[in-house]
């Protein structure tokens, strides 16, 4: 009958042209959306979420299945209630493993910011890639940005290959326990043979200790601020890239009618969508360095060590200035 934290496949049927999958109905929304709607959010809440995810991953691995695309967008809640089950969804990239082999998969797939080093190396990968992703998710849930945030997918990949991350700025990590950081380090181990397994992770003190974490700080303000700031910043960056691509490719013909007096509004309303269509963005496939990602998705790019609010405001100011200059040159 499956696992309580896995979206169950109830039935399937096919027509001449389509295959239909019938699954559990999950009405509780995505993980990060749920967190942002909460009035408060503590490290102990993150522990509960990761424990449920690990329980499901351990079940999958025991049955010879590797998910390969674990990320917050693929973690759903069954119902809107506070005590609703967390569900792992989207098994489109999952594979059944041969238990007698450790390395059998060589296809580069997944979401770049959550992919393990061995996937990029194409040296063969297996179940450990799910634990790497859980390490990235845990980091993200505790601060609002991913550990390998960079300005391009190439730089992000280079950071992942050498596990170049840190728990900074200190202002964002002051309220996070050392045990949580140690858990993340065990997940983000470059060598898959040395990386913690799902069952070992369930026994880790950060996960296994049922006593609530004492004197914890409310992490919600920091998490929401970092997430929203980066989403805004990268949407603006994608806008500039969209303008450059449209201008370089004769995109002026696509933009008929009067020009808006508000460059930011015009860009946000039309150019991003046009550029996404031109680039053929695919959420689950790494894109070349010059390509951006959907600004409405959780964007994994940015500064790996976090940015102060002043730095973010300064970047946004420069982007607005560049937007206005580009617009005036048309």
UniProtKB/TrEMBL annotation:
<feature type="compositionally biased region" description="Acidic residues">
    <location>
        <begin position="288"/>
        <end position="297"/>
    </location>
</feature>
<feature type="domain" description="Protein kinase">
    <location>
        <begin position="1"/>
        <end position="207"/>
    </location>
</feature>
<dbReference type="InterPro" id="IPR000719">
    <property type="entry name" value="Prot_kinase_dom"/>
</dbReference>
<protein>
    <submittedName>
        <fullName>Pkinase-domain-containing protein</fullName>
    </submittedName>
</protein>
<dbReference type="InterPro" id="IPR011009">
    <property type="entry name" value="Kinase-like_dom_sf"/>
</dbReference>
<dbReference type="GO" id="GO:0005524">
    <property type="term" value="F:ATP binding"/>
</dbReference>
<feature type="compositionally biased region" description="Basic and acidic residues">
    <location>
        <begin position="298"/>
        <end position="321"/>
    </location>
</feature>
<feature type="region of interest" description="Disordered">
    <location>
        <begin position="277"/>
        <end position="330"/>
    </location>
</feature>
<dbReference type="Pfam" id="PF00069">
    <property type="entry name" value="Pkinase"/>
</dbReference>
<dbReference type="InterPro" id="IPR008271">
    <property type="entry name" value="Ser/Thr_kinase_AS"/>
</dbReference>
<dbReference type="GO" id="GO:0004672">
    <property type="term" value="F:protein kinase activity"/>
</dbReference>
